[in-house]
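Consider this:
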Amino acid sequence: MNNRSPDQVPRLSESLEHKLVFTLCTAAVIFSIVAGAAQFTHSYRQEVQRNRATLDSLAVTVHSSASIAAFVGNEAIANDVIEGLLRNSEILAVNLESNTGYHVFRWKNPKAPEWHKEDVVSYQLLSPTGNHEPVGTLSILTDARLIASRAQNAALLQLGTLILQTIVLGLIMLLAFRRLIGRPLSNLTQQLHTVVPGTSQRVDIDPEQNNTEIGVLAASLNGYLESSENAIVAERELRVRVETMENHYRRIFESTNVGVMVLKMNGALISCNAVLRKRILRSLPDAASAEHQDILAFAFKQPEAAWTLVEQARSQGSTEEADLELRQASDRQQWVHCLFSIHTPEGGKGSQIECVLYDVTSRREREKMAIRSAERDALTDIVNRRGAERFIERAIADAHNVGAAITVFYIDLDGFKKTNDTFGHAAGDQVLIEVTERFGSALRRSSDLLARIGGDEFLIVAYDCNKDSAIVRELCERLIASLADPIRFSNGGSILIGASVGIAGFPEDG
C-alpha cells in the first residue's frame, strides 16, 4: 500500500496536459487576435482594391465610347455607355459631361441616394481624334456600403479560415502530446505514486518508450528504487547491529565495577553510570546542579591534581592516570584510581573529558599497612631503622631547602645484655618497651622522631634545632634523667638501665 496521504496525490488541475492545453489555448487566442486583426485589415484592403480594379477595368472598356459621346454630343452613345456601367451592382449613378457643356446623368434606381463626393470616381475623357486633348469627364458614384460589406465578408472568411486552421493545428499538437508524452508520463506518474520505497516494486517501461526521454527516466527511477531498496535493507541491518551493540555496551556501562563519567571541559557533568553514583561518588549533585558545577572540585580532595592530569591528557593527547583521594563526608579515607582522556570530535569543537574511576581504597590501606610494617618496630611500635633513614633523608632535603638545622641523637642502652642474660628475653622486651615510653615523654614535641634502629639502640631526630643549642642540652638531660628510676618487672624484680648518647648535627656534620 502507498503510504502517501491524499493531499500528496497529484491533482488533475496540476497535470502537464492541462497546463499544455491552457498554454495552447492562450497562445491560440493571442495569435488569433493579432493575426486575425492583421488578416482582416489585409483582406479588407485587398477587396477594396479589387473592386477599384474592376471599376477601372470597366472605365477603360467604355472610355472610347464615352469620349466619342462627349466629343460629338451624341446622346445615344452616352446612354449606351451609362446603361452598361449601371449594370454593375457596385455603381449607383453615372455622369458624363463634356468640356463644351454637354451633360448626361442617370441614377440606377428611381429613388436616388445622396451624391457623396468621397464615393465618386472620375475619369478624364480624351479626344478620339488622337491629339489627346481632354474633351470631358466620366464620373461614377460607387456603392460604398456594398463594397465595404463585400470586403468585410471576404475578410471575415479569411479570418475564420485562419482561426479554424489554428484550432485544428492546436488539436493536432495536443493529441500528439497526449499520445507521445502526456499519457506515458501520466502512466509513469501513477505507477510511481503507488511504489513504496524500500520494496521490490518497480515501474513498468513501455517498449515504445525505451529509447525516449520517458524510457530513460523510467529506467533511472527503477535504478533509484533499487538503490533505495538496497540502502534501506543495509540501513535496517546496520540499525539492528547498532542496537545490539548499544545494548551490549549499555549493559557494560551500567554493570561494570568501575565508575565512568563524561564531563565538559569546564568540569560540568554530562553523564555517568550507576556505579559512580551508588558506589564511588554517593553524594553527586542532581542533574540540574551538575550542569553548572565543577565535578572534579566536588569529588576530589585535591582537585588541582585532577585538573593537572586533564591538562596533560589534553596537551599530550594521551591517557593520564593517578591515585586520587575523594572528598568524603566521613572520616574514612577513600581512594580511586583515575584514568583521564580527552575526546575531541571531528571539527575540533565540543571536546569532552572522559574519566574512568575504580575504588582502590583497600589496596591503599594494604599498601599503608605494608609500609607501616616495613618501617615500624614490631615490639615498641615506633619507627625502625628503615623508617628512620627515610625520615632523615626527607628532613635533610627539607632543611637544606629552607636553611634549617637538624640534630640527631644516637642512644645506646648500658647493661641491657645483662638484663637478657639474667632475667630472660621477655624481661628484655619489657625493658625496651618501658625505655621507649620514657624517651617518648622526654621529647619536646610530636614532630621529633623516636626510632629503634637495633637491639638496644635508639635514634632521636630533632628538627629545626642546632646541636650546640640549649634545647639539645636540655633534651639530653631529660633523656638521661628518664632512666634514673629503676625499671620494675611484672614478677617483682627491677633493674637500673643507663644510656650513652652521641650527637650529630646538620649541616655541621654533613
About this structure: The CA atoms of residues 11 and 18 lie 11 Å apart.
